[in-house]
Design a protein that fits this description.
Elements lengths: L4 H42 L2 H4 L2 H29 L4 H4 L1 H32 L4 H4 L4 H18 L2 H5 E3 L3 E3 L3 H39 L5 H5 L3 H17 L1
Antiparallel strand pairs: 1-2
Helix pairs in contact: 1-3, 3-5, 3-7, 5-7, 5-9, 5-11
């Protein structure tokens, strides 16, 4: 057996290990800083009166709040465990369950709020007046409450089946498989597939509208009220963001 190969391999791995440690330490900090700044910018943007009164803008406003909570809680709690010596993740069952629950439920709420914005733009661009009636601020209030409740209720199983084993983890066996499928489908495939479907629906609605609109002259366009032009421009911007 060649006994000299082991020290050489270990030595060659040292720079990789150092680089990995640096990346693991600084990348979460960078993500946290840019995530907080981005969420605050979104919040400021969607609190503008013109956007705040829009149902789609309201969805993005609430989503930015939950996104800020998700980034700050998830990354800070993870950083505290990895680098600040926190042992709550291995000693406190309550903390284990609560953190696992929140890092799943809060991003889920954000995802479904963005989905609602996509649905809202699809409804508002429809040629059917009945569908367009769903794109109202009062409907946005109700749908937002439903999305928040759905996100937190659908993750309640985490509070039951997560525990210290000895670190915070899922119950092995059937539930571990269910938890994996829950993340893949409920947090991933289903909402993003629906976003794609309603995004395509929005594009089709816009094209259908264009075919129904006759060519107008620049003179007639100049007669359109300024407020109506601004609202139309806002709708176009929100459609672009939600898709």
């Amino acid at each position: 057996m060649n006994t000299t190969s082991s020290p050489v391999s270990t030595t060659s791995l040292l720079p990789i290990q150092v680089a990995t440690n640096i990346v693991n330490y600084y990348v979460p900090i960078i993500i946290l800083v840019f995530g907080i700044v981005g969420s605050l910018c979104n919040f400021i943007t969607f609190t503008a009166p013109q956007l705040r009164k829009s149902s789609c803008g309201f969805y993005f406003l609430i989503a930015s709040i939950f996104e800020l909570l998700s980034i700050t809680f998830g990354l800070i709690s993870r950083f505290a465990t990895d680098y600040l010596g926190s042992t709550l993740n291995t000693t406190s069952t309550a903390y284990c369950k609560l953190r696992a629950y929140l890092v799943s439920a809060i991003p889920l709420v954000v995802t479904y709020l963005v989905l609602l914005s996509s649905i809202d733009r699809s409804m508002s661009s429809s040629v059917n007046a009945h569908y367009r009636s769903f794109s109202q601020i009062k409907m946005a209030y109700r749908a937002t409450i439903v999305a928040i409740l759905l996100g937190f209720i659908s993750c309640l199983h985490i509070l039951v089946f997560y525990d210290l084993r000895p670190r915070c983890a899922t119950m092995p066996g059937v539930y571990a498989m269910f938890d994996s499928m829950f993340v893949v489908f409920w947090l991933g495939i289903i909402p993003h597939a629906l976003m794609l479907i309603f995004g395509i629906g929005t594009i089709m609605n816009i094209r259908r509208k264009k075919r129904r609109i006759t060519i107008v002259t620049d003179r007639r366009l100049s007669c359109v009220p300024v407020q109506q032009k601004r609202e139309s421009k806002t709708d176009v911007q929100l459609i672009a963001v939600s898709n």
